[in-house]
Amino acid sequence: MRVKRYVVNALPEAVSIIRSELGKDAVILNTKEIKVGGFMGMFCKKKMEVIAAIETNKAQAPVQQSPKSTPKVNAAIEQILKGAQRNATAVMEPPPGAQAETRDERADREQFIIDEIRDLRQLMVKLSKQDSDRAAMSDQLLELKAHLEEQELDSQWLDRLLQSIVDKQFEDQTEYTKEQVWEHAAAQLEEWLHPFADQEISREARVIHFVGPTGVGKTTTIAKLAAEQTIKQGRKVGFITSDTYRIAAVDQLRTYANILNVPLEVVFSQMDLPKAFKQLAERDLIYMDTAGRNFRSELHVSEVNSLLQSSEPSETVLVLSMTGKTKDMAAVADHFSKYGVRKVLFTKLDETAVYGAIFNLIMNFELYPTYMASGQTVPDDINRFQVRSYIQHLLGSGSR
Ligand SMILES: Nc1nc2c(ncn2[C@@H]2O[C@H](COP(=O)(O)OP(=O)(O)O)[C@@H](O)[C@H]2O)c(=O)[nH]1
Ligand SMILES: [Mg+2]
After folding, report:
1. What are phi and psi of 3, to 5 degrees?
2. What is the per-residue pLDDT across 204-251, written as a single tens digit (0 to 9) for each?
3. Residue 222 CA: which ligand 1 atom is closest?
4. Which ligand is nearest to the CA of 243?
5. What residues contact residue 355 under an 8 Å CB cut-off, 6+ apart?
6. What is the Cα–Cα distance from 135 to 15, expressed in whole angstroms?
């Protein structure tokens, strides 16, 4: 243990010296008012003697006093220290005319001060850690943090992202400019998303099921994709719909089927499926539309899942709208990922400017993004999911 004595005018002054000399783990062992200088007891100055110590194995580089250290934290320390100092002075200097204290009273008050200093020390260690964490974040990093908080990026990912940039800055022994901070953020996000990039709906699958909550755009998306497959790829597409809850839902798909000249089969239960597949035996690719349900309920998820059984190579795509609430989307994604759904398609990007949910869903549920739909126009408003362009949306104008 390294012990050091400081003589200062007031406690707060000692605290900053101790922090810079002994580091943030230093503890104050004792404080005492002393008198220095003067002549024969006259003209002497009152000072504080502060004994501080640091465990030698904890000895570390002193915390750099950051010019940007948070004023709020400093003010809090200052105020607490002033309180403690007032108490200490009150004990050491009984007011004139006060009765002499008994030994017990004195011991009690001393214990009170010791307790207070101990609490103060704990608080200081905590505050100085927060302070140094924050001090490590430059304005550029704080700007990135604020931006991605607005974009609703999960805090656990945001913290990891900021830490990775802090670490890189430390390695490079430099403070990044805004441009560099944004560049590093983009590179890190790209690295994380890389395993989920360049995914498409399986080419081997002959049957593609589209599932997801009501109104997310499943039917519209099916029409967009079918148009691309028939017109651009020249494939023979067939439709099956099990969305028989609403009469209009069947009509909606029928309208697209007529426009695209694609045969449509309607199934009311699992038992109708073999017949429907037989009718579409000549088709290269079958898109199956399902009813949107309250998929926050796992029961509905298992219900729709029973409809998706097929002897053919098949794939299920979860359709989620960006206008949905993050929590609800996560619950739906969680349920479907339990049933082995791995592909996701995001719709209504045109209706939001907040893109964090896409990242959260991909990373937290290991879902592969396939397409992004951004409008009601069939067949134009759909594009393959591109990691780079997505990151640009997420980082906004700061990335350019
Ligand atoms: N703004 C916008 N609207 C969309 C998009 N996709 C679908 N819609 C609209 O959302 C509504 C519901 O779509 P629908 O395909 O019936 O959803 P479903 O219930 O999941 O089949 C319709 O008015 C669509 O035109 C999109 O990407 N952006
Ligand atoms: Mg529909």
Report:
1. -115, 140
2. 899 999 999 999 999 999 999 999 999 999 999 999 999 888 888 999
3. 15
4. 2
5. 151, 322, 349, 390, 393, 394
6. 18
